[in-house]
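Bumping my old thread because nobody answered last time. Still need a sequence for this structure:
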């Protein structure tokens, strides 16, 4: 139902949802869920070089698309995330918006499943 509603929403509403997400490996205060997921992917232990790479990719991505890079990090590694980042920053805007929406829906599904199992 969540995914159906998000996909049916107008572009402005979709962008507002996407823009509500923090940068990966950024300095923003994270929710407990986000902090746990990012730590599970190793984003809390980045080297200085890795952090610089994430920061540069975050800025390039936001400059290109006008919204933050969204990646459901649960089960991923920092290397997988960097690879996806590097590939996706090259995508056309319409394709990347669709991927970002799919990733938001994936994050939502992971979090609902976590709570149902608890």
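Sorry it took so long. Here it is:
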């Amino acid at each position: 139902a969540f995914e159906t509603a998000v996909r049916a929403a107008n572009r402005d509403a979709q962008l507002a949802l996407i823009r509500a997400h923090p940068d990966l490996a950024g300095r923003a205060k994270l929710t407990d869920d986000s902090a746990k997921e990012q730590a599970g992917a190793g984003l809390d232990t980045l080297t200085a070089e890795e952090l610089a790479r994430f920061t540069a990719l975050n800025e390039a991505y936001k400059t290109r698309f006008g919204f933050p890079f969204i990646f459901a990090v649960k089960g991923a590694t920092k290397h997988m995330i960097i690879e996806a980042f590097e590939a996706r920053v090259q995508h056309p805007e319409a394709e990347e918006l669709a991927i970002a929406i799919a990733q938001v829906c994936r994050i939502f599904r992971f979090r609902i499943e976590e709570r149902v199992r608890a």
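The chain has six helices and no strands. Let me know if any region looks off to you.
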